Amino acid sequence: MNQKTSYEQPESPKGLAFIPFKLEYDAHKKTGSFFVPLLSIAAALVICAIFIAVNGMNPLTVYGKMVQGAFGSSFGFSETLVKATPLLLCALGISIAYRISVYNIGAEGQFILGAIGATSITIFMPNLPGALYIPLMMLAGVAAGAVWGLFTAIPRTYFQVNELITSLMLNYVALLLLDYLVFEPWRDPEGFNFPGTPIFNPFQMLSNIGSTRLHIGLIFALIAVVIFAFLLAKTRWGYELKLLGANPIAAKNAGIKINKHILIVMMLSGGLAGFAGAIEVSGVAHRLMYGISPGYGYTAIIVAWLAKLNPFAMLVTSVLIGGLIVGGYSVQTIGLPSSFSLMLQGAILFCLIGGDMISKFRIRRKV
């Protein structure tokens, strides 16, 4: 049942008439309109513009510089797509879990495990035929991310442990595992003081598209979007996910096994983030190294929420946030740190959360 709470104007101590309306909050009201994300972005731009102006700079100049850096040249746009690729895959994974109200914020750790899994093929299978490397690396990345997702799903399913806590804590475990591997057993002995594995050989690298750093991992991500959209719209599994997300009690009464779906969904969620990690290590870094992820798993939460969990809308929002990251590098030339893009991302997230909350209120006249 929908829970609604009314917030009514209290009576004036001087005996004035009641204000003839009330605010009614519906926690289950659908906020599918894309006006909320658009207004959230606009509000975030205005808030950050105030900080820019306080620091004595012209907000339009700063935003123009970011747009020019991210989309104003073939190089800038290709770099934006390089950043958008892992964001898109992680956001897809996050959105699967969110559809049944499982809040996976562990995509960062699952991404790192995917990169570790892909690299393990190059470490432990150095003499494979060249054509086998990329398929096995991708499969290993997906499997590692899926297993890491299960580490969140199993406590949630069988012991009622909050997945927010476990998925967040596992991010730090994954990060420490990465640090151990690149500083100790997998460290390149010829890499001097650089914490990373040896550079992959050409058979272990994803092919580039043209003369840029953009690689065929983008094609893999686009295929994943199409498959995900098809599964949601055209399969029984997709219908069950929708029913489970809309009304868990009705889904349970209809015979849908909720625990089974949580396990499958978290495996898929982790697997997609792990796929992103495998693509990043093979297509961009070409080695497993310290700081392999600049926070893709966390940033992907913004990508998924802005898109309202719509897989095709994530194509747009991943490019938007990818451009925001690349544009952040450009503002260094006019005196702002590249971390300004992080501030803007945070402002978008806060405005998006606030916009979703406000959109669940209804103004009604008193009877």
Automatic annotation (TrEMBL):
Protein name, entry field: ABC transporter permease
CDD domains per the UniProt record, alphabetical: TM_PBP1_transp_TpRbsC_like (cd06580)
The keyword Phosphoprotein is annotated on this UniProt entry: no
Chief place where the protein resides: membrane
Keyword Transcription regulation on entry: no
Keywords: Cell membrane, Membrane, Transmembrane, Transmembrane helix
Compartment(s) of residence: Cell membrane
Organism annotation: Peribacillus faecalis
Membrane association type: Multi-pass membrane protein
Transmembrane segment boundaries: 34-54, 74-98, 105-125, 131-152, 164-183, 214-233, 262-282, 288-307, 312-332, 338-358
Entry GO CC: plasma membrane
InterPro entries: ABC_transp_permease
Domain of life: Bacteria
GO molecular function, one term: transmembrane transporter activity
